[in-house]
Specification:
The complex is a heterodimer. Chain A is of the alpha/beta class. Chain A has twelve helices and nine strands. Chain A has a single domain, classed as Alpha-Beta Barrel (TIM Barrel), CATH 3.20.20. The longest helix of chain B is centred in the first third of the chain and has 15 residues. The chains are: A alpha/beta, B alpha/beta.
Chain lengths: 284, 415
């Protein structure tokens, strides 16, 4: 079983990077993309490349809130035979080599519902998962998975968006733990770049309602953007850009090449530099 | 909608305050959409209580859409089915002629209601998804009527099998965006419409075409479509002085069916049959679109309902000859009505629908859409088992003009 949500790996990691006076780099990859073996290699290489927290996408056939890049990654993974069981097994094997890097599973509810919410929570804890982000479970549906997850010792990380006003925010934050994931633009993943001034205002607004760290994502692609967002946010989430690096490294048949893992680690390395520079940039 | 005169054991009280019909329904959407869903719920609540809203809708229904649609005694079909029936058998068959509505299907009923809601909410842009194109055409029509820009998402496969409707939408000024994701059919179009809505949440109103999706859509689409059942009840009362013995309607997402069924749910003597798309047959894996008969409960597109899915919870595409029926889900109220046993859900294959399509065309001079041809296929099975003095009302929810090219292809004809 993982530790209690409030004192687990996620809280420890945010505390550690805070001591380094920098934001956390939160990296998203899709489990099983482009195939299970390559995906495991990518996962294993992420911490060394500079990822502080890993979001591992659980592929779903109908990812309603995702843009073309993450949709395509999910389809590649499903085509290669990825299932929720295999994703949990990936985490279990990752934990054999890395005891500290937090892993957050991100996806949609139906595969979890089919697996069985209670059994999923138990198996995820057992595998060494630290938190869940389930895009299509708003607070109105907390009984489905959020409450069982919190009871089981998993963090339940919720998305806040520009449409989440001050009236709505307390409801969104009520059962949120681990961190708050601020989606910096209305839209699907990987769309237009966020405006760092507006992001800063939004982060301040959320922080007025919660003690939790606030990570910002959607549209962050480069070291410079990561640096700019990281001036105010506690974490910078990068997803589509990493998944696109995977896509760009594949051969004509969509199979992994010897460049696939290094394409990801090179990009993550640059982004890690960006978050390390962000507070220095802010001070200048 | 808590109506006066509901029976204590009513089937008509759903959804509850959280948008559930029993265990089905709900609001499974991304947080970005939640404020909009809540805003829509409040706007619809207010509209329901607003006599002006109802008056405006009724006026448009009469003068623009052509309601009430006739209730028609299909005499030659009835006689034909009696010929092969055992002595004393062969129910009287009536068609509720919603194919005569403006735009050629029942979809206009819902679109008129929703465009009025969009205007009330101050939204300046309309989006919609469409399968067969009937809902897309109806959405483009009301958007033109009220001068709002409209974008319709349609699976690429469907744009190819429903070319006439794509052209109609473009003529009406709508932008038709072909969706290539997945199999390029209705579910993929719905995903893409939801993505658009997530991105343009402030100014955009999403007219969902069927009684599915997050609460309050299943409720409000049902309410706007219930005019079908209310009229049919009144008309049959006038013509026959009684209730029907059976109702039959086809189901893709289930909006025409719930529209016909809902006003009769508490009339216990009325047997109700929903007809799903059996495609190549229920025994053919992923060869049909019968979510209720061949799927199991899951969560997709904002609601919990019966879904076609694999063991890992990945959604299957489904198959039907009819582009309007090959949706892998079903409105949550139908899921509830199945589990409660009030409605019997059956299926008709592509072949049966094609046969029924031709029979109806020749006997009644009515070219049905392939969707209600599935309902007709059930009527053909059902009527000979019922007594001659019994009555079936079937919803002829769309006309077949859009399908003639596809049907010609299936019949091996060149036009």
């Amino acid at each position: 079983m993982s530790a209690d949500a409030s004192s687990g790996r996620i809280a420890r990691r945010f505390a550690a990077v805070r001591n380094e006076l920098r934001p956390a780099l939160v990296t998203f990859v899709t489990a099983g993309d482009p195939d299970l073996a390559t995906s495991e290699k990518i996962l294993a290489a992420l911490p060394g490349a500079g990822a502080d927290i890993i979001e591992l996408g659980m592929p779903f056939s109908d990812p309603m809130a995702d843009g073309p890049a993450i949709q395509a990654a999910g389809l590649r993974a499903l085509k290669a035979g990825q299932t929720l069981r295999k994703t949990l097994a990936m985490v279990r094997r990752f934990r054999e080599i890395d005891a500290d890097t937090p892993i957050v599973l991100m996806g949609y509810y139906n595969p979890i519902y089919q697996y069985g919410s209670e059994k999923f929570v138990a198996d995820a804890c057992d595998a060494g998962v630290d938190g869940l982000i389930v895009v299509d479970l708003p607070p109105e549906e907390d009984e489905e998975l959020c409450i069982p997850a919190l009871k089981g010792g998993l963090n339940f990380i919720r998305l806040a968006t520009p449409t989440t006003d001050d009236r709505r925010l307390p409801k969104v934050l009520q059962n949120t733990s681990g961190f708050v994931y601020y989606v910096s633009i209305n839209g699907i993943t990987g769309s237009a770049a966020p405006d760092s001034t507006r992001v800063a205002e939004a982060v301040d607004r959320i922080k007025a309602h919660t003690e939790l760290p606030v990570a910002v994502g959607f549209g962050v692609r480069t070291r410079e953007q990561a640096g700019a967002i990281g001036r105010t946010a506690d974490g910078v989430v990068v997803g589509s850009a990493i998944v696109q690096a995977v896509a760009a490294s594949l051969d004509e048949d969509g199979k992994a090449t010897q460049n696939t893992v290094s394409a990801v680690t090179a990009l993550v390395g640059e982004l890690a530099e960006g978050v390390r520079l962000s507070r220095q940039m802010a001070a200048e | 909608m808590a109506e006066p005169g509901l029976k204590p054991n009513t089937y008509r009280s759903g959804p509850d305050e959280t948008g559930h019909f029993g265990m089905f329904g709900g609001r499974f959407v991304a947080e970005t959409l939640m404020p909009n869903i809540l805003e829509l719920e409040a706007a619809y609540k207010a509209a329901k209580e607003d006599p002006e809203f109802h008056a405006e809708l009724a006026s448009l229904a009469t003068h623009y859409a052509g309601r009430p649609s006739p209730l028609y005694y299909a005499e030659r079909l009835t006689e034909h089915l009696r010929e092969a029936a055992p002595a004393g058998r062969g129910a009287k068959v009536y068609f509720k002629r919603d194919e005569l509505n403006h735009t050629g299907s029942h979809k206009i009923n819902n679109c008129l209601g929703q465009i009025l809601l969009a205007r009330k909410m101050g939204k300046s842009r309309i989006i919609a998804e469409t399968g067969a194109g009937q809902h897309g055409v109806a959405s483009a029509t009301v958007a033109a009527r009220f001068g709002l820009p409209c974008t319709v998402y349609m699976g690429k496969t469907d744009t190819e099998r429903q070319k006439p409707n794509v052209f109609r939408m473009r003529l009406l000024g709508a932008e038709v965006k072909p969706v290539t994701a997945g199999a390029g059919t209705l579910k993929d179009a719905m995903n893409e419409a939801l993505r658009d809505w997530v991105t343009n949440v402030e100014d955009t109103y999403y007219i969902i075409g069927t009684a599915a999706g997050p609460h309050p859509y299943p409720e409000l689409v049902r309410d706007f479509q219930s005019v079908i059942g209310r009229e049919a009840k009144e008309q049959l009362q006038e013509m026959e002085g009684r209730l029907p013995d059976a109702l039959v309607a086809c189901l893709g997402g289930g909006s025409n069916a719930i529209g016909l069924f809902h006003p009769f749910l508490d009339d216990e003597s009325v047997k109700i049959y929903g007809v799903e798309a059996g495609g190549h047959g229920l025994e053919v894996e992923n060869g049909h679109a019968a979510s209720l008969n061949g799927g199991r409960p899951g969560v997709l597109h904002g609601n919990r309902t019966y879904l076609l899915q694999d063991g890992d919870g990945q959604i299957l595409e489904g198959h039907s000859i009819s582009a309007g029926l090959d949706y892998p889900g079903i409105g949550p109220e139908h899921a509830f009505l199945k589990d409660s046993g009030r409605v019997t859900y059956v299926s008709a294959t592509d072949r049966e629908a094609l046969d029924a399509f031709q029979l109806c065309t020749r006997l009644e001079g009515i070219i049905p859409a392939l969707e209600p041809a599935h309902a007709l296929a059930e009527v053909i099975k059902l009527a000979p088992r019922m007594d001659r003095d019994q009555i079936i009302v079937m919803n002829m929810c769309g006309r077949g003009d859009k399908d003639i090219f596809a049907v010609a292809g299936h019949l091996g004809m060149d036009i």
